From TrEMBL:
GO molecular function: transmembrane transporter activity
Predominant cellular place of this UniProt entry's protein: membrane
Protein name according to UniProt: FtsX-like permease family protein
UniProt membrane topology term: Multi-pass membrane protein
Length: 859
């Protein structure tokens, strides 16, 4: 048979089975759409930030060399004297230079004390209005601030919070609170990703944000005509002596891009990982589809072989159909991916990060990757059925003997599956015996992959036994209809195994993550009960500003509070007696911290660490550096003095909270660190007087009510916060895994639909001998339920095994409670049965509508 004829036959077969191909195409479409949507979404984020950073960066920027990412430990950004601006203005090639003030360690509230920024999203930025801001913003209402009582706000924030001219805003900074009325509104020329921006005049910004006038956080320099940024940078650097950092516009934009790049990479690769899972599930759907289509066209294939088609031509014919399916699904998937990206942008806007469709970026690589992945995966998935089609002998096909059962291949497959499953089980066991989490995680990864592949390979063998058990429990009550559904599910174990495996993958991940998440919450809750003696924990968005800390200490004098503990994290460089240098943060706290956070010691008493010029170290640090109680550690405080502190205690690192922490008395930190360099309180603790917990709780909350970013939590609140944080993360992951589960459901639908076509004559005969339409539909629904529950049992069992192993590794980090979330597991299991019922609706409906005589006449 000529190649042209074979091509026509392939195209004809593809369109002849277009209904059956549709669900497989949807699986390809969804997977490609998720990949392309992820790439378009992250590329759009890149474009948004690139435009923003390019618009806000001057030709050359000068900043303090030690400037940290916001906010500074002290709550005030690093700054430079105004004299630096004078010297920069005199440098060759400088057209203009101006000093700027900017701080992100602020909270801006309206008259109702509502935060104008986001606690979880983009930052709140306060600064002075400069000519450089005109590169990225226009004043669209009012005017720039001219005095201490005037403020200008960005239009996005004004719109979001219904602000108007004349409204009063209160700005909470580390130097204190101050009020100003809105006299201007400025609009971004580029997309604002969600930051709330307020502007003051220069003197007010210096006084209120930096604590003193005559200081700037950076200098923006514009170049004369014909002077390149690189030359300007060199000239400006030559004009200044001291610890300054010089960046061209490109360098500043690149540095800012790197700051947000890690966040965007996490989103990108996580979403691509879930798209890969969807592709993996889709492979089972495609294999099943083509396997069943090949089986249904056995006689046709025999005729093709009888008239001269070679095995290679038959093989190629099936692969051409797969190619058409891949192209069709991938092309639509690329378009759907753009729509998905727009949807993701809307979701991010709701979460606090605004992205505009004006910046929608579709690079040529995105559709190329989507098409390549979709087509390659589809063709590879169809290769096994295509190869099986080529093996059909003409005589066997014409006798309607179908594809010969390869008993030997089945045995080999079963043996390989057992070996892989056993090897994976051994890897998981090895992971549980690891002494370090890093070593165990490698074995865990190997175990997960190997057991997953093993279960997929051994699926047909498991199907026979597991389906019989499920049927004995679920189907016996349905009498003969239930027995027929069982036999249908057992008729082709390979098909049942592949269909169940598609569902198994998604549910295994759901079960694993549920176990890990629940164990983390249970472990943290247990550790909280064991280690935290304080009644209240107080936290702020960027630490606790001095006014909040002072208010809490005042509440401690109300008669309801026994004590209030301050906790600061002080940067130091330690030098051990052996000469080893380590950069470490010391926990500088008031001595009551030893009551608020119970820490066991392996040597010495923790209370002694709060003595004069004393400290504690963690047991792992002490072991690594051969330290003992009585040794003296050389401690160089950041921006402070270098002193020797005596090791008075060694704390056990067998804990979750403050693992590895080193403690000193807050008085010690104040002695060796200048007052204006002391960090803000990272958190604070409080203890209620006996029997007065309720009154203390109200007094503490009332004391910090002026700052909506400060939260007072009792232990119940704190536990709920931990649970909510893990729950939010899991819900997001479950949402992404839903894509794989949807594809798996499509696989069940397709398998049943093609199975109904395959059994058309059989269905007609059953109807002829008295099977009602209702019984027929019930039989197909029960078969679907059995397949879905089979996949659920394998997936949930496998996932709980993975989760239990992962928890053993978490135990090495102090999270030592294993908790199986049975309500979640049972809900997923029952939900799987409903998934089976839902997947069977269309195939059962179509089967019930068959004409009995036409069905019997079908060959």
């Amino acid at each position: 048979m000529s190649a042209n004829t074979m091509m026509k036959t392939s195209v004809r077969n593809f369109f002849a089975h277009k209904g059956r191909m549709a669900l497989s195409a949807v699986a390809v479409l969804l997977s490609v759409a998720f990949v392309c949507g992820t790439l378009v979404f992250t590329d759009t984020m890149d474009t948004t930030f690139d435009k923003l950073f390019a618009a806000t960066s001057s030709d050359v920027t000068v900043s303090p060399k030690e400037a940290k990412n916001e906010g500074s430990d002290t709550g005030r950004p690093e700054s430079m004297p105004a004299s630096a601006l004078t010297r920069v203005e005199r440098a060759d090639g400088v057209k203009s230079a101006e000093g700027a003030v900017s701080s992100m360690n602020v909270t801006v509230v309206n008259a109702d004390n509502k935060n104008m920024g986001s606690e979880n999203g983009a930052p709140t930025i306060a600064g002075n209005w400069t000519h450089n801001d005109l590169r990225s913003m226009d004043i669209t209402s009012g005017h720039a601030p001219r005095g201490p009582t005037e403020v200008m706000v960005d239009s996005d924030t004004a719109k979001k919070h219904h602000l108007k001219m004349g409204d009063e805003l209160r700005t909470i900074a580390a130097t204190g609170d101050f009020r100003a009325r809105i006299v201007g509104i400025a609009s971004f020329k580029v997309t604002n990703p969600g930051a709330a921006v307020v502007y003051f005049d220069t003197a007010t910004a210096q006084r209120e944000l930096l604590g003193r006038t005559g200081q700037f956080t950076q200098i923006n320099v514009a170049a004369d005509a014909g002077v390149s940024d690189a030359v300007l940078k060199k000239n400006v650097a030559a004009s200044l002596d001291g610890p300054y950092k010089f960046q061209t516009q490109a360098e500043a934009a690149d540095a800012n891009r790197k700051d947000v790049g890690s966040f965007m990479d996490v989103i990108k690769y996580a979403m691509l990982g879930f798209a890969g899972i969807a592709f993996l599930v889709g492979i089972f759907l495609i294999i099943n589809t083509f396997s069943m289509l090949v089986a249904q066209r056995t006689r046709e294939i025999g005729l093709m072989r009888a008239v001269g088609s070679s095995r290679k031509q038959v093989n190629r014919s099936v692969l051409v159909e797969a190619l058409l399916l891949g192209v069709f699904g991938s092309v639509i998937g690329v378009g759907a991916g753009v729509g998905l990206a727009v949807g993701l942008m809307k979701m991010m806007s709701a979460a606090g990060m605004d992205l505009s469709t004006d910046d929608l970026t579709v690079r040529w690589t995105t559709p190329a990757i989507g098409l390549l992945l979709g087509i390659v995966v589809t063709v590879l998935a169809a290769y096994v059925p295509a190869r099986r089609a080529g093996k059909v002998s003409p005589m066997a096909a014409l006798r309607d003997a179908g594809t010969p059962a390869d008993v030997k291949a089945g045995l080999v497959r079963g043996l390989i599956g057992l070996v892989l499953t056993g090897g994976g089980g051994f890897a998981l066991y090895t992971a549980t015996q690891a002494a370090k989490a890093g070593e165990g995680s490698l074995w865990l990864g190997v175990g997960i992959v190997t057991t997953l592949v093993g279960f997929v390979v051994i699926g047909p063998l498991l199907a026979g036994g597991v389906v019989r058990v499920i049927s004995a429990v679920l189907l016996r009550m349905f009498g003969s209809v239930g027995r027929m559904a069982e036999r249908n599910a057992l008729r082709n174990p390979r098909r049942t195994g592949a269909t169940g495996a598609a569902l198994m993958i998604g549910l295994a991940l759901v079960a694993c993550l549920s176990v890990v998440g629940s164990s983390m919450v249970a472990s943290a809750t247990s550790e909280l009960d064991k280690s935290v003696g304080a009644d209240f924990i107080v936290e702020g968005q960027n630490g606790l500003k001095p006014q909040a800390a002072q208010a809490l200490k005042s509440a401690g004098e109300s008669g309801y509070v026994s004590h209030v503990t301050e906790v600061k994290f002080v940067r130091t460089t330690l030098t051990t007696p052996g000469g080893v240098k380590e950069d470490e943060q010391l926990v500088a706290a008031t001595p009551t911290y030893a009551q608020d956070l119970r820490r066991e010691t392996t040597a010495g008493e923790l209370s002694a660490a709060y003595g004069k010029d004393a400290m504690s170290v963690g047991s792992e640090f002490a072991k690594k550096n051969h330290l003992k109680v009585g040794d003296t550690m050389k401690v160089a405080f950041d921006h402070g003095r270098t002193v020797g502190l005596r090791i008075a205690a060694i704390t056990s690192d067998d804990t979750t909270f403050d693992k590895g922490a080193m403690y000193i008395n807050l008085t010690t930190a104040k002695r060796y660190v200048p007052a204006d360099r002391l960090p803000l309180n990272g958190m604070m603790f409080a203890k209620a007087e006996p029997g007065k917990a309720g009154q203390a709780y109200k007094a503490l909350k009332s004391s910090v009510a002026a700052d909506p970013t400060v939260h007072v939590k009792n232990q119940t609140d704190y536990k709920q916060t931990l649970k909510d944080q893990v729950g939010q993360m899991l819900n997001m992951i479950y949402g992404l895994l839903a894509l794989a589960i949807v594809v798996a459901v499509l696989g069940v639908v397709n398998t049943l639909a093609l199975s109904v076509v395959e059994r058309t004559r059989e269905i007609g005969l059953m109807r002829a001998i008295g099977l009602s339409r209702r019984q027929l539909r019930r039989m197909i629904r029960l078969e679907s339920v059995v397949i879905a529950v089979f996949g659920a049992l394998l997936g949930l069992g496998l996932g709980m095994g993975w989760g239990a192993t992962a928890q053993k590794l978490l135990a090495l980090e102090g999270l030592d409670v294993l908790e199986i979330p049975w309500p979640t597991i049972l809900t997923v299991f029952v939900g799987s049965a409903f998934v089976g019922l839902f997947a069977a609706l269309i195939p059962a409906f179509r089967a019930g509508r068959m004409n009995v005589l036409n069905a019997i006449a079908t060959e």
